[in-house]
Structure formats: structure tokens, C-alpha cells
TrEMBL record:
Keyword Transport among record annotations: yes
Lineage: Eukaryota, Fungi, Fungi incertae sedis, Chytridiomycota, Chytridiomycota incertae sedis
Organism: Powellomyces hirtus
UniProt KW keywords: Golgi apparatus, Membrane, Protein transport, Transmembrane, Transmembrane helix, Transport
Subcellular location: Golgi apparatus membrane; Membrane
Residues spanning the membrane: 32-52, 58-82, 94-113, 119-140
Official protein name in the record: Protein transport protein SFT2
Gene Ontology cellular component annotations, sorted alphabetically: Golgi membrane
Keyword flag Transmembrane helix: yes
């Protein structure tokens, strides 16, 4: 099949914006399903991780909370493509949030497995949450500015 035939066929079937990997493409509907399933699954896993915290398994909590956040982050890859997602994580507007998010994930696991400190693990998880929240806001036009303005009075 020629490239022109492939592109015209892709346009007719409503396939994805760009191939995810190896020429495999998803339709818009499949991408939305992938996004929704990953986002909800990640949220549920993160939420259910608190059950492990209540039974005293700080390491289990840290692993499941971190995995839930990773799955939630991957959900946006279904919308824009995983390659594009990775590139956008390195954009100047998102780089700091990406680095803080990745470092806090590692710190959460290190603290939970080595120091076994509940308080420090929870602090790392909170930083993870804030970094993912700030990163996610970068995809919504003017959302960061709006959030800063909303919180401006609180921090003054």
C-alpha cells in the first residue's frame, strides 16, 4: 500500500492523530476509551492504595499510589500519542513539573522501602499529586494563570 493510500484510508476511518508505535493506530473513539479507562483506573488504584496504608503497609501504599499516578499520566498519551506525550513532557513550560513528578515518584518509593517513614512517604505522595496537578494544568489554556490568581489571595 502506498503512503498516499494509507493516509487517505486513515482519514476515511477516522484513525488517530499519529501512530502510537509501529504503524498501529487507534480511532478517535478507541483513544477516548483508552484515555477514560486509564484515567479512571489510575485514580481508583491511587485511591485504593489508602487501604494498604490503613493496614500498615507503607511500601504497598507507595507502590500502588505511584502506579496509579503513572497510569493516570499515561491516559493522556491515548489522546495525543505516547511519543508526543513524552516530547511535551520536555517542553520548557512542563519540564519543571515533569522533573518534580519523576523525582517525587522515586523519592516516594525510596522513602517507603528504606526509611519506612509514613510521614515522609505521605509528603512525597503529596508532592507527586501537586506536580501531576500542575503538569495537567499546563494542557488547559490559561489554567495555570487562573489557578495562580485563585490562590493568590490565599498565599498573600
Amino acid at each position: 500500500m502506498a503512503i498516499g493510500d494509507y493516509l487517505s484510508g486513515a482519514a476515511q476511518t477516522g484513525s488517530a492523530m499519529d501512530p502510537m508505535c509501529g504503524g498501529f493506530e487507534l480511532t478517535k473513539k478507541q483513544r477516548f476509551y483508552g484515555f477514560g479507562i486509564c484515567f479512571v483506573l489510575g485514580f481508583v488504584i491511587s485511591l485504593l492504595s489508602t487501604l494498604l496504608l490503613t493496614v500498615g503497609s507503607i511500601a504497598g501504599f507507595a507502590v500502588f499510589y505511584t502506579c496509579g499516578n503513572i497510569i493516570s499520566l499515561l491516559s493522556t498519551g491515548f489522546l495525543i500519542g505516547f511519543k508526543s506525550q513524552f516530547k511535551k513532557m520536555l517542553d520548557a513550560s512542563r519540564l519543571t513539573a515533569s522533573i518534580v513528578f519523576l523525582v517525587s515518584m522515586v523519592a516516594t518509593l525510596v522513602v517507603a522501602f528504606t526509611l519506612k517513614s509514613v510521614l515522609l512517604t505521605l509528603i512525597c505522595c503529596f508532592i507527586q499529586f501537586l506536580a501531576l496537578f500542575w503538569y495537567s494544568l499546563s494542557y488547559i489554556p490559561f489554567a495555570r494563570d487562573l489557578f495562580k490568581n485563585m490562590c493568590g489571595g490565599f498565599f498573600k
